[in-house]
Amino acid sequence: MSGERAAFFSFRTNAMDATGACIIIGAGLAGLSTALALAPAPVVLLSKEALGAQASSVLAQGGVAASVGPDDDVELHLSDTLKAGDGLVDAEAARKILSAAPAAIERLARLGAPFDRDAAGRLALGLEAAHSRRRIVHAGHDSSGREIMRALIAKARATPSITLLENVEALRLIVEDGAVAGVLAQGEGAPFAIAGGRVVVATGGVGGLYLHGTNPVGSFGQGLALAARAGAEMADLEFVQFHPTALDGPQFPLKLVSETVRGEGAILIDDRGRRFMEGAPGAELAPRDVVARAVFRELSAGRKVFLDARASVGTAFAEKFPAIAGFCLANGVDPATQPIPIRPAAHYHMGGIKVDLDGRSSVEGLWACGEAACTGLHGANRLASNSLLEAVVCGEFVARSVAGTPARPSRASLAAPGRALVRDAAPVREIMSRHVGVLRDGAGLREAAGALLALSRANERASDPALVALMIAVAALRREESRGAHARLDYPGQAAVARRGALRLDEAVEAAERLPARLVA
After folding, report:
1. What is the spatial distance between Cα 51 and Cα 365, in angstroms, rounded to a whole number?
2. How confident is the model at residue 412 (pLDDT cuts 50, 70, 90)?
3. What is the third-level CATH fold of 3-58+152-239+348-379+387-392?
4. pTM, to two decimals
């Protein structure tokens, strides 16, 4: 334990008193951005693994979407975001976040992010699906997340006001009189309490709830479980984006073949060489939900699907996409001469903890940002590379809100809690992949909800993942339409009025309990 941590830690009670600090759960791009924006105010930052080791941000190949090109502006970026979000984007929130994008790029550059530039020193801008302009700012070509995170991790380690707790996992939020009063956590030793009335959840997504995902295996929505058990309201949970082009293989997480490859002209073909997206509006650069469903249908029909960059990129593939070329070659595929086998994989969660423009949740003292939060920016379907942007920008918004909120005195008990809690999402994955995946229907969603409720009660290790999955299934069951990333075979059309969804944990449990007994047993 470092000297900085020892200043907070009490060996007598096996607890920490961080009342004067902000406690941030999650050390991906959103968590780090919040912590750095709060400096020099004190922060206690919890990272479940070594810093950066299990953060989805590190895996991001695409870059940061920002209207910084000479032919671009915020209104064009907003228009593309609204179109991709399929009627559910909060336009006010989106405008505020997108307007902050150019300044966010400048801030990241000052923090050391090595953005790609052309010979004249201008930002090199890439194109991704559903963007009408080249506005994707990359770092290290297809290693943007890794390079940006490398810079922010180095800065966080060098910032005296940030106390880093690595290999420490948050188990529960401590709530007193309806307000957050601390965090129950565990590291390598016994569980311990951290007292503090200002907590930020920045824990990432839910890809670990599925058999095929691009998030780290531990990304099962742990931040959603924390907030939901504390009584927080969730929003738009049914909208899970499946990336259409993950490298098909046995590993988890699946390696992502960035949309930028299609932006450079790669096409989708089946095992007969047929280009099955050719006649669709936007073809391979249609919104992700459209492409994912097209790929899924081909796989469901027993065919294999490939991303073919031979004609468009060819021998320049390794130069343009060194990281992708590396893991493809490691899996026996040379993208310069062979088509890449791909499949859809759970990639990004548009839903999450419902927050306002300052990142405040419905529970006093609890903020959220990044993928764990639902700001309304993404609507029913995230526009590519708006997620890294949201993490950086909303981290700053949250920091300003936290800084302007006086630390609430906490009466949380600092007595050492009971035994450690181990979480395991493995029992959930088959249920979610079968019934709450790319295509859904009412019968399958009801079966999933019943099975997940029973699992949450019968298997303590799977309880938190099962409850997050249950909320997603119930939200999907409630939405009797197909919109964005939520596609129901029994409701293929859209409702006349687009409405965002809201749900609390007790409501999800009650809905599942009303199902026929055979579905819950």
Report:
1. 25
2. low
3. FAD/NAD(P)-binding domain (3.50.50)
4. 0.93
Q: How would you list the strands of the sheet with 64-65, edge to edge?
A: 64-65, 136-137, 125-126
Q: Name the residue ranges covered by the structural domains of the chain.
A: 3-58+152-239+348-379+387-392, 59-147, 246-344, 426-520
Spatial separation of the C-alpha atoms in residues 91 and 40, rounded to whole Å: 33
- Catalytic residue flag (residue 288): yes
Tens digit of pLDDT for each residue in 15-28? 788 888 999 999 99
Q: Distance of alpha carbon 357 from its chain centroid, rounded?
A: 18
CATH 3.30.930.10 fits 246-344, yes or no: no
The per-residue pLDDT for 489 is 97
CB 232 within 8 A of CB 363: yes
Options 1.25.40.20, 1.20.58.100, 1.10.10.410, 3.40.50.2300; CATH of 426-520: 1.20.58.100
What distance in Å separates the CA atoms of residue 216 and residue 439, rounded to the nearest whole number?
A: 23
Tokens of 224: 């959603």
The token duo for 288 is 């992700």
Q: What percent of the chain has pLDDT over 90?
A: 81
Nearest to 175 by CA among 416, 366, 423, 8: 366
Q: Among candidates 371, 337, 330, 325, which has minimal Cα distance to 351?
A: 371
Q: How many angstroms separate the CA atoms of 437 and 345, rounded?
A: 9
Catalytic residue among 288, 360, 382, 483: 288
CB count, 10 Å around CB of 281?
A: 9
Exposed e or buried b per residue across 466-490, where buried means at least 16 C-beta atoms within 10 angstroms of its C-beta: bbbbbbbbbbbbbbebbbbbbbbee
Q: Give the residue from 346, 338, 139 showing the smallest Cα distance to 242.
A: 346
